[in-house]
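Moderator note: this is an archived Q&A kept for reference. The question asked for a predicted structure of one protein chain; the sequence and the answer are reproduced below.
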Amino acid sequence: MQALVLVGGFGTRLRPLTYHVPKAMAPIANVPFIERFVDYLEANGITHIVFAMGYLPDPIANHLAKRNGKAKYEFVVEEQPLDTAGAIKNAEALLGDRFFVFNGDVLTTIPLRELLRVHEQKGALVTIALTPVDDPSRYGVVVTDSDGRVQAFIEKPPKETAPSNLINAGIYLYEREVLRHIPAGQPYSVERGLYPKLLEMGAPFYAVPFPNDYWLDIGKVEHYMQANFDVLSGKAPLTIAGKELRRGVWVGENGQISPTAKIEPPVLLGDGCVIGDGATVGPLAVLGSKVIVKEGAIVREAVLWDECVVGKGAKVERCILGSRCEVEDNAAVEPDRAYGCSERITAGVAA
């Protein structure tokens, strides 16, 4: 089976983290997202993966070049932003008679073989995965008939009047014929262009709900942070690197934890982390490699990328720090936001 993964976006909703790091390389519990995503694809029987790239393609390609995976990888880089359907069309020369398409920012356990089974049973041109959400007003709702055939896409309906809580999960299965309906060499959207066109044509267009499988779009700061916490808590059933010292506390190699430090699970400490006297780490803390948390500092409900330094008595709560950030002694980091790589956060509440 073949898959096309759309990883060409600018990652604007994750800025400033993505100014110098592509969204696909953002770590989920200390493993690059793209690594976890390829694991998912290979576990679901995908043997050929095409990556549609645009913004900062080299870190993704270089990382995958070192991977000893089961699948064959190929890359196509767009010269200008082409939107979702335009990126699919741009990869046409590498695509076969049938292929999956994925938004490259979805962390999920949705089983692809079930999508394939329904697609073949219905003789579909397109079959898409649906996932339930608590508040459909933030998304596009998909309306189907009793047979699963798509009837309409309703963009951001009021929660009280939404006809369904099932949304487009960003996972599609296409027959090659779909490519004929996408204009070449220009930006074109799957959601706003291709799918309305297919509905108007009366094409065999089906959807399959997956109410019991994990799904999260990691493209926003709060969702990216939640994805990390879901891995720690076990809600997202993914592997966690490191040795589990005790229930819910994972540590990498060559770290140092003071006997007077307080480690409250769930916590993941990467290789070479140093936790100082009287420091508190956790609950819900992910520390990348070589992170230093100094004496009396507090880190909880936070994701720290590699080589961050948290000064004495500092507080880092409900936030994300990009690689090599430095929090000064006694500084209190502003919650509910992300800091870009190499930022310095001074004493007082950061602006």
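Archived answer notes: The chain is about 20% helix and 35% strand.
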